[in-house]
Amino acid sequence: MFDPLDLYDGTDTQNEIETSTETYTFINDKAMTPNEVLSEDEEIDNDDAAPLFILDLPPVSYASPETILATLSLLSPDTQVNFKSSAGLTAEEICNSKHITNDLQEAIVDWYANITQNKKLDNISKICNMIPQLVNSSDTERSNLLNYYTSILKKYENPKTVSSISGTIVKEVSLRIAECCGRSAIPSMSRDFKFENMTSIVSLFEPSLTADNLGWKTWGASLILSEVLVENFTNIASFKKKENGEPLKVLELGAGTGLVGISWACKWKELNGTDKNDIEMYITDLPEIVDNLKKNTTANGIDSFVTADVLDWTKADDFVQKYSVEDQSFDIILVADPIYSPNHPEWVVNMISKFLRADGTCYLEIPIRPKYAVERQVLIDLLDKNNFSIGNERYDQGIDDWGSVKYLYREIRRK
Ligand SMILES: C[S@@+](CC[C@H](N)C(=O)[O-])C[C@H]1O[C@@H](n2cnc3c(N)ncnc32)[C@H](O)[C@@H]1O
């Protein structure tokens, strides 16, 4: 686990102003007094179209604690929609979503409009529009951002810095430092997912990624599989109420945060309601993942007909006994990104063999990770050996936290 405070060198507490000025020196190649800093800012401000730099952020030595807290809040991550940051929000919406109170807004506007007279940022709209973009700047600017954060941590960790909001600032800046280190270092987050043809927005909570709990992150394969299934829901013959009066039985394996199963269930609910005579659905994973899965199922309003529970691919009997599940009883099996160890192909094929009905379909999406080419081939061989055929098969281009990823979509049926 990464500790954000590892970045903090607490030995030098006397050079506070010098350190902060040094940051400026590093960028401008000269040392400056506070007044020189301000007049330098004015020069930059004359060009309204000039891009924003970390240099434009309020320096910790001169700006008020409220200004610093407002800045840190603006630099917090946007709620992501479909793995992308949400754009086009008003200043009011941004302030509400980032919990920036009126007092904090006034402090940061005062800093830019009156104290430094920075025309690039002299009203709340410009501030809310431009400052959050600094998080996505170049690698050099990002390392300057890390310097900026550590200078704040250094000042507000120091007991000599007296402010009623020191604790809040230290907490916020520690989160910002962690966020610089990628998804695996982020304490926890929520993400929203929107689909064409569906009114509901799926909102998922992801706990901090600790140990091997890969199911606490939503993976790109689940987004692309959800898009395929939800957006084509009414065209897929098997996604309908059964004519024989029995409930349609749906099972998700290795659901993680639950995107595939939850989005599928939200779409079912919009079209068919929640009558348990029509649908029986289980979204499943390992014990340590299931608490969060249950939370997400409830939060998205589908828990009246969807059960989130443990189904370990190595000991399915517990699940079978608890829910009196018969062999080959599921019409639909959903699986996204289940193969990342040599054992997984065999375990996953065992589960499909055990649970898929004679006329059922398993919808599978896997990322094309170079490291797991062998496991993907073993999966194909085992499916074939167990008398399964691949119906539709297609490569998709999708997205995950680190960018574009290639995926393979497959529909699996018994021969
Ligand atoms: C890469 S994650 C994918 C999660 C989710 N399907 C997604 O795409 O966001 C793989 C998932 O498989 C689950 N898994 C791994 N081994 C398992 C096992 N033996 N039994 C059940 N689930 C397992 C993990 O807990 C994890 O949630």
- Measured distance between first and last alpha carbons: 46 Å
CATH first level of the largest domain: Alpha Beta
Bound molecules: S-adenosylmethionine
Name given to the CATH architecture of the largest domain:
3-Layer(aba) Sandwich
CATH fold description of the largest domain: Rossmann fold
- If strands are numbered along the chain, what order do they take across the biggest sheet? 7-6-5-8-9-11-10
The mean pLDDT is 85
**CATH-defined superfamily of the largest domain:** Vaccinia Virus protein VP39
GO molecular function, one term: S-adenosylmethionine-dependent methyltransferase activity
Protein name: S-adenosylmethionine-dependent methyltransferase
Organism: Maudiozyma humilis (Sour dough yeast)
Keywords: Methyltransferase, Transferase
Describe this protein's structure.
The chain is elongated. It has a 7-stranded mixed sheet, sandwiched between helices. The chain is 40% helix and 18% strand. It has 2 domains: 4-184, no CATH class; 189-414, Vaccinia Virus protein VP39 (Rossmann fold). The protein has helices at 16-28, 34-45, 65-74, 91-97, 102-115, 124-130, 139-157, 166-179, 220-231, 259-272, 287-299, 317-323, 344-355, 373-385; strands spanning 80-81, 84-85, 189-193, 202-206, 248-253, 279-285, 306-310, 330-336, 356-367, 388-400, 403-414. By secondary structure, it is α/β, with parallel strands linked by helices. The protein has 14 helices and 11 strands. The chain binds S-adenosylmethionine. S-adenosylmethionine (SAM) binds at residues 214-215, 218-219, 221-222, 254-257, 259, 285-286, 289, 312-314, 336-338, 347.
